[in-house]
Amino acid sequence: MSLAKCFNVDDFRKLAKKRLPSPIFNYIDGGADDEFTLKRNTSAFDDCVLVPSVLKDVSNVDTTTTVLGQKISMPLFLSPAAMHRLYHHDGERATSRAAEKFGTFFSMSTIATTSIEEIGNYTSGPKIFQLYIHKDKGLTDLLVERCQRAGFNAMCLTVDTIVAGNRERDYRTGFTTPPKLTLASLLSFAFHPQWSLNYFLHEKFKLPNLPQSGKGGESVHSSVIDYINTQYDPAMDWKEAEYVIKKWKGPFALKGIASVEDAKKAVDIGATAIMISNHGGRQLDTSISPFDQLARIVDAVGDKIEVILDGGVRRGTHVLKALALGAKACSFGKGYLYALGAGGQPAVEAMLNIMQSEIKRGMTLMGCRNVKELTRDKLIFKK
Fold first, then answer.
1. From CA 309, how far away is CA 237, in angstroms rounded?
2. Given Cys at both, which of 93, 128, 156, 221 links 255, Cβ 3.0 to 4.6 Å?
3. CA distance linking residue 154 with residue 272, whole number of Å
4. CB burial of residue 7 (10 Å; 0-12, 13-18, 19+)
5. Cα–Cα distance between 209 and 228 in angstroms, integer?
6. In whole angstroms, what is the distance from residue 124 CA to residue 154 CA?
7. pLDDT band at 183 (very low <50, low <70, confident <90, very high)
């Protein structure tokens, strides 16, 4: 299988599985516990069907939208995801440049393998930084200040990861950060020599936005899961969220909102947007999928705050369904990470081109000339 034969997200997934060592691929692909939520995130879109309108003048279809203070070329952007260097040696450089080329947001994780400053200089496209609240409040403040100096356009605070989810696939495959040659992973690395050579011969794996050691002096590189469990603040509350919103002084999203009550609180503390998300099914298994909860949250706060659906998006029609229920935009992670693992920046660009084409073609066939014409009467839910 080659990049030229990739026509949808599943094709990129298959190519990534072929090219990446098993521990790396399964870190992208997996979820928590029994992976019910991981599967439901996508299958939820199958519970409704689209209702097209015909005999409309769709000679000019506008896929643009404005979210978090930026006009983007399509209502889909790259969700924050950790450690892009694991999937391709160009890492966040590849994904940020691809997003810039397509005029949509690149979102950078706190646990990135490229520094805030480098990405700030490397791409002029719209950029979001994804923040975690640390026990060390000085570190949290410093991350915000670095992003301000580096010219990031927006920030999101992930609120559903005060402790790491139970990702059993990673235990089975021997996944470590940085990757190590263990008994569990040795054969997989050996059977993927191109990835292994690129990884070990290019720049050293690093997490430049994090301190180099924890309070006990241990290397945080030994385990990102350990870092989450020891350095993120489980006492994080709404006051902490309000504090960083005010410190940032710009467009700000809370990522990981799942309940109507929490969506209302996000409005109260001055957030610009909420990202309905369950961390790609990687945290609390059997938690509600973003699409299942979208309509309730939009009905409660959609006129007061931007609502972004994050999770499960695999097709342009998924984006259309989310917008019809009232989402301002969607974001996705696994889709573009599969592409990154399958072939670096060219593959991410190919993936974004496919998704943009699917969105535009779908809108054309729906008789919708712009995203505002995607309304609830365009959907019917199955009984």
1. 22
2. 156
3. 10
4. exposed
5. 14
6. 13
7. low
pLDDT tens profile 273-285 = 999 999 999 999 9
Domains and CATH numbers, the chain: 3-381 (3.20.20.70)
DSSP 306: E
Task: For 147, list phi and psi in degrees, rounded to 5.
Answer: -65, -35
Q: Annotated active-site positions, please? A: 279
Closest-CA residue to 75 (of 370, 377, 376): 370
Partnered with residue 276 across adjacent β-strands are 257, 309
Please return the burial class of 201, using the count of CB atoms within 10 Å of its CB with bins 0-12, 13-18 and 19+: exposed
Is residue 143 within 8 A of residue 207, CB to CB? The reply is no
Identify whether the C-beta of residue 283 lies closer than 8 Å to the C-beta of residue 326: no
Q: In angstroms, how far is CA 335 from the centroid of its own chain?
A: 9
